[in-house]
């Protein structure tokens, strides 16, 4: 499926503008991480784009989130490994632990986008261009800041061979490339 078709598929299921932006940010970060790791950039980016396709269908229920996504993606002919990565980014619903590089990359990438957005929003100009990697790392240590962001999931970047600082830097750079689409 071409990206434009995937975006339309996502729009069919995701109506919340901020959730849609989160999916775009996750797509950008996954493309960058795939590039760093020498993986399939288009497939990894597509997983980032579509990872939350069912979030509104299941009403944010983490016990169900990704199970409907699995069905939607199968019906639309996506590759098995992409579907599995989407499913595994939510261990609660899958009932299994992430072990594959693709799975861990998606979970860490989509999670760090929330920390980066929260960091951006405390800056006076609310622009990604103003954010420094050191600010993201500082806020990573402050468990009260963006408390819902699971730092352990972000740290899975280290399991795939990317140190946290390099991961945060790459994620920020990726999101800056689409700052206009994100409104940041």
List key phrases describing it:
Hypothetical protein af1432
Shape: globular
Q: In percent terms, what proportion of residues is strand?
A: under 5%
What sequence of helices (H) and strands (E) makes up the elements?
Answer: HHHHHHHHHHH
Helix content: 55-70%
pLDDT < 50 runs, ≥5 residues: none
Assembly type of the chains comes to: single chain
State the helix count. Answer: 11
Q: Which architecture per CATH?
A: Orthogonal Bundle
CATH class: Mainly Alpha
Number of strand segments: 0
Mean pLDDT: 97
CATH fold node name: Hypothetical protein af1432
Radius of gyration: 15 Å
Describe the protein in words:
Helix content is 63%, strand content 0%. It is mostly helical and 184 residues long. The chain has one domain: Orthogonal Bundle (Hypothetical protein af1432), CATH 1.10.3210. Helix 2 packs across helix 7. The longest helix has 21 residues. The chain starts with a helix and ends with a helix. The model has no long low-confidence stretch (mean pLDDT 97).
Please sum up the structure shown.
The chain is mainly α and 184 residues long. The chain contains eleven helices and no strands.
Task: Please outline the helices and strands.
Elements: H1 3-13, H2 17-37, H3 41-50, H4 67-75, H5 80-88, H6 91-94, H7 101-121, H8 133-141, H9 151-154, H10 164-177, H11 179-182
Helix pairs in contact: 2-3, 2-7, 2-10, 3-5, 4-5, 5-7, 7-10, 8-10
């Amino acid at each position: 499926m071409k990206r434009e078709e995937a975006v339309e598929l996502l729009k069919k299921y995701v109506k919340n503008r901020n959730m849609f932006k989160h999916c775009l940010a996750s797509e950008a970060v996954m493309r960058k991480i795939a590039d760093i790791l020498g993986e399939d950039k288009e497939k990894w980016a597509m997983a980032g784009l579509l990872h939350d396709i069912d979030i509104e269908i299941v009403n944010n229920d983490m016990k169900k989130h990704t199970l409907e996504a699995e069905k939607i993606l199968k019906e639309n002919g996506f590759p098995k490994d992409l579907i599995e990565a989407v499913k595994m980014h939510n261990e609660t619903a899958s009932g299994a632990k992430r072990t594959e590089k693709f799975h861990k990359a998606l979970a860490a990438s989509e999670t760090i986008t929330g920390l980066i957005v929260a960091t951006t929003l405390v800056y006076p100009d609310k622009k990604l261009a103003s954010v420094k990697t050191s600010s993201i790392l500082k806020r990573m240590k402050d468990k009260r800041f963006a408390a819902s962001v699971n730092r352990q999931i972000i740290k899975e970047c280290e399991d795939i061979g990317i140190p946290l600082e390099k991961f945060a830097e790459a994620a920020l750079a990726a999101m800056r490339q689409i700052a206009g689409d994100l409104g940041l």
